[in-house]
């Protein structure tokens, strides 16, 4: 039970952060289509995350409006629950439990979005399949563990929404809070270290590598939010407002961090396409004015140029500019430790599927 002013602030924060979260994810999907790229697996996970965020937005609004059975003992001693208030708090408590399912699902869907990105970066590298399968197993087990704890902490089950008499500490869900926070930190740290070998295999200027490391280690902010959130929520374990505030903060932080590489890449591709279009117009204008030699095979563009354009057109280009970067392949072949530059790999890259856009961020101009 909190005063009207802080309550209004929590409502505003909940709505603003939730809407910004949905906006970030929607921007990723709309921009992908605007660039005429097909959706990849990570985009479909993003759609699922948007659904979870929308459901949470509606559920938590009612929870904040009607309250739950998580009432401090000091308030219970001096408060008489009316039948209407008891009914509303029961409904709020039931919606609170439903919200936990969708919130947990949102977090783990975002992990899969990031894992799909890294999977495409790790293609053809040593132990790629083993690493990804290992991560998927850990994510599946951790997700099931969180959901099981979410629905088994109170026994009998009706204690989850019982208002009177006091349902006991299980209504505060301390075990669920600790389990969710711990597994969230562990899995986020796993995602944090996954792209490091990929960047390490790049032969690039140290500043470029530093940019890549900075982009891929943004996940540290999610870990930081979770670490800060755990002790604060424990100190205010009977406050739904505190939980909602920090959950909304984590919701938005996760959306920004997970979608930053894709949004950066889409913006970078749009910028490069504009530059390329401008250069092409300048070349055509120069030829029209007769300021340059015109050869039969260059009227309307050479055959070689058209062939390259046909190959590159359907590909969803990568996320990062990597001009001057070489990729070192860690695999050994025929007893040799091969190192292939970007130029030597280009034929394979040009023929890659349009769904391998994230993998190409380390190879192609974007």
From TrEMBL:
Ranges of biased composition (kind: Basic and acidic residues): 326-349, 356-366
Domain Rhodopsin: 27-255
Chain intervals for the UniProt region annotation (Disordered): 277-366
Keyword Aminoacyl-tRNA synthetase: no
Zinc recorded as keyword: no
Record keywords, A-Z: Membrane, Transmembrane, Transmembrane helix
Residue ranges crossing the lipid bilayer per the database entry: 12-31, 43-64, 130-151, 175-200, 212-232, 244-267
Subcellular location, record wording: Membrane
Source superkingdom: Eukaryota
GO terms for cellular component: membrane
Bilayer topology annotation: Multi-pass membrane protein
Family: Belongs to the SAT4 family.
Protein's name in the database: Rhodopsin domain-containing protein
UniProt lineage: Eukaryota, Fungi, Dikarya, Ascomycota, Pezizomycotina
